[in-house]
Amino acid sequence: MAGDKVSIHGSWASRWVFILAATGSAVGLGSIWKFPYMTGVYGGGAFVLVFLLCIALLGLPVMLAETLIGRRARQSPANALRDLAIEAGHSAKWSWAAFAGMITALLILSFYSVVGGWSLDYIIDMGRGDFQGVAPEQAGAYFARMISDPWRLTLWHSIFMLLSAYVIARGVVAGLEHSLRIMMPLLFLLLLILLGYSLTTGHFMEGVHFMFNFDTSRLLDGLLPAMGHAFFSLSVGVGSILIYGAYMPKNSSISGTIVGVALLDTFVSLLAGVALFPIVFAAGLNPGEGPGLMFVTLPLAFGNVVFGQLMGMVFFVLVAVAAWSSAISLLEPMVAYLVERTRVSRVWVTTGLAFICWFVGLGTVFSFNIWKEARFFVTGADSFQLYQWGAAGGLDFFGVIDFFTSRIMLPLGGLTFVIFAGWVMGREAVREELAMRSPKLFALTFLLMRYVAPLGILIVFAAQLWK
Ligand code: PFF
C-alpha cells in the first residue's frame, strides 16, 4: 500500500518535530517583514481581511493537500506526483507541475537570502549600538545606506546562503530540530515584548485601526497580492510543505497538525503587524514605505528603550533564524529530487543549487543600488516595453522575481496540488491519508479541496484580469 512507503531522506522523530519544522518553514520573513509592508502598501484593513480569507479558504486546503500527497508518496514533489498519478491511472506528466514549483522555490530563495542577509547585518548594527537613541530620519537613512552598498549586501547574502546550505547538506531531519526547539518560542516572546513597547507609544489604537478597519472600495486592490502572500506565508504552492509531509510519521494526524501550523503562522503575522504599525505612526513614517518598513521601525523601537541594544540584537538573531528555517524548506524539494534522481551526493547537489540561487540573488542585491534604474515590463499610455533604463513605471529585478513567484507561480502551484488531491487521487485516497474521525469534517475538508480552493484561485486570477 502507498501509505507504507518510507522516505530515503529520513523521517521526523515525532509529530512535534514535524510541527516545529513546518512552523519553521511557514514563520519567516513572510510574516515579520513582508506581511506588514504589504499591509502598508495595500491600504491596511482591506488587505488584512482578504489575506485572512485567502488563508482559510485557499491556503489551508492547499496545505492539507500538499502534506497528504507528500506523506502518501514519501518522495520529492515531482516524483510524488508522478508515482501517485500513475497509481491512480493518470498521466506521469503531472510531475512537470511539481517541477515548476521546485524551480519557483529556488527563485524565491534567491531574494529571500538577500533579505535574510539584511537581518544578519542588523544583528551586528544593533549589537554595536548604532541605533541607540536614533531618530526616524536617521533610521531611514541608515537603511538606505546599507542597501546602497552592493558589496555589503553581497557579503551577507553569501553568509545567509552558506548557513542554509550547511543544514541542507547535512540532511534536514538531522539539522533542524535542536535549533528550532529553542528559537521559535523565543521569537514569540520577543514579539510580545515588542508589542509591549508598541502599547507605550500612544499610537497603539491608530495601528490597530489601520490594520483592522477597511475601506470596501480597496478590497479589490490587494486581491491578487493577498492571495499570493497567503500562499507565500504558509509556504505552500512550491512543494516545501509537501516534502516535509514526506518525512512525517505515519501515525500523526495531518489535519489537526496543519491547522495548528497555519494558525500559528497567521498569528505571528498579525502580531508583527499590530506591533509595528503603532511605531510607524508614532514616528510619523509612511506605512506604505515598502520593503524597508521593518528595518526602519524596529531600530526605532529598540533604539529607544532600556536594554534595547541587547533585545534588538536578539530580535534580529531570531528573525534571521526564522528566515533560515524557511530558506531550508525552499531548497529541500529540489535537493531531494536530485538526490532521488541522480547519483550525485546530497552535499554536491546542495552546493550546486545554492550557488545558482546565490547567483540569481545578485540581481536582487543590485536592484537596490547599481541596477536601481533598470525597469522591466514598462507600460505607458499607448506603449509597452520589456525593458527600459530609468523608466517611471515598471518593476525592478527584485520586483519581477517577486511578482512572478508570489503572484503567479505560487497560486498556480497551489491550484495544481488541490486539483491533484481532489480530482486525481480521489476521495478514498484522501480519506485514508487524512484519517479524520468525523465524517462531516472530512466531507467539508474534501469540499474545500475539490471545489472551493480551485474555483477560488481561478476567480481571484479572473478578477485581477478584468479589474
Ligand atoms: N513561508 C515563508 C515565510 O513566510 O517567510 C517563506 C516561504 C518558505 C515561502 C517556503 C514558500 C516556501 F515554499
Short description, anyone?
The chain has 467 residues and is mostly helical. The protein has helices at 15-26, 29-41, 45-73, 77-87, 94-128, 136-147, 150-170, 172-199, 204-212, 223-234, 240-246, 254-282, 293-303, 308-341, 346-367, 397-425, 427-434, 439-465, and strands spanning 374-379, 384-389.
- Under the CATH scheme, which architecture would be assigned? Up-down Bundle
Shape: globular
Low-confidence stretches: none
Beta fraction of the residues? Answer: under 5%
- Termini, distance in Å? 48 Å
Write the CATH fold name: Amino acid/polyamine transporter I
Strand order of the largest sheet: 1-2
Q: Please state the average pLDDT score.
A: 93
Question: How many individual domains?
Answer: 1
Class by alpha and beta content? mainly alpha
- Helix tally equals 18
User: Could you give me the name of the CATH homologous superfamily?
Assistant: Amino acid/polyamine transporter I
In the CATH hierarchy, what is the class?
Mainly Alpha
Share of residues in helices: over 70%
Query: How many DSSP-defined strands?
Result: 2
Which ligands are bound? 4-fluoro-L-phenylalanine
Give me some keywords for this one:
18 helices; 2 strands; two-stranded antiparallel sheet; binds 4-fluoro-L-phenylalanine; mainly alpha
